[in-house]
Design goal:
single chain, alpha/beta, eight-stranded parallel sheet, 12 helices, 8 strands, 41% helix
Length: 279
């Protein structure tokens, strides 16, 4: 599973071997420049999910329920989920939380809304956690995450994301569940893995989390391309002849223009440009 937030990115992933495309609420940070995920709205998530869904003909598209779209209870959660499936045109949604969200997940599944759960480090709970910190490091905390996993499974979630938990904890959870686990910072023993588009492609210069492996480093290449473009425009090297269009009757056109408007090369500010335009 990989994240995507727009049509071209999702189209590329759909052409690849990627099984699931997540329109993550990480959109807030990676695309909209926010400091955390809390500020992204339902309208913003729906807008980007719709673009991703248009691109994916094969991969499963999952829309990420933003903060404030389901914490209000079952009715709010169901209405938000319906919007994702109807307007966002995705096939499933993801929401954060374990035991405390079990009743919400069950009600959404009953309402024909497929749900992917998310436990461990849940970014929407960052203020309760005191930041983005690894969860399940103590025995009691690890047992609580295992209980969360069983709870979301029994509630009807079709899969569960395990984020930022010790490898040994994920290794105990995964074989005990009937549903697949998808890890992010949870080690190799999960059934699947997820990374953020901008992280794994190296699309920004910020330091990435420890669990991220960058499969490309595109930021310097893109920066170099932008600088090269600007330099060639300033030096008059772009666009050149091969990047322009010819006019078959150019000489006749120039004659007509000169007859009606005069020769603009007579003006000092245009000196030499007439000859250049004939090349």
């Amino acid at each position: 599973m990989l994240t995507a937030y727009d049509f071209p990115s999702a189209y590329l992933l759909d052409q690849s071997a990627t099984d699931i495309v997540l329109v993550g609420d990480s959109l807030a940070m990676t695309v909209l420049g926010q400091e955390n995920t809390l500020s992204v709205t339902m309208d913003e998530m729906i807008y980007h999910t719709k673009a991703v869904s248009r691109a994916c003909k094969r991969a499963l598209v999952v829309g990420d329920m933003p903060f404030g779209s389901y914490q209000g209870g079952i009715n709010q959660a169901i209405q938000s989920g319906i919007r994702f499936l109807k307007e966002g045109q995705c096939a499933a949604v993801k929401l954060e939380g374990g035991k405390q969200r079990a009743s919400v997940i069950a009600a959404m599944v009953e309402a024909e809304i497929p749900v992917m759960a998310h436990i461990g480090l849940t970014p929407q709970s960052m203020h309760r956690f005191g930041g983005f910190k690894v969860q399940g490091k103590s025995v009691d905390a690890a047992m609580a995450i295992l209980e969360d996993a069983f709870a979301v499974q029994e509630a009807g979630a079709f899969a569960v994301v395990l984020e930022s938990i010790p490898v040994s904890v994920a290794a105990e959870i995964t074989p005990r569940l009937r549903i697949p686990t998808i890890g992010i910072g949870a080690g190799v023993h999960c059934d699947g893995q997820v990374l953020v588009w901008h992280d794994f492609l190296g699309l920004h210069e910020n330091r990435v989390p420890r669990f991220v492996k960058q499969y490309a480093n595109l930021y310097p290449e893109m920066l170099n391309a932008a600088n090269q473009y600007c330099q060639e425009v300033q030096e008059g090297k772009f666009p050149d002849v091969q990047h322009g269009y010819c006019m078959p009757d150019q000489d006749l056109f120039l004659e007509r223009v000169e007859e009606k408007y005069g020769n603009y090369s007579a003006h000092p500010s245009h000196e030499g440009k007439l000859e250049e335009s004939k090349v």
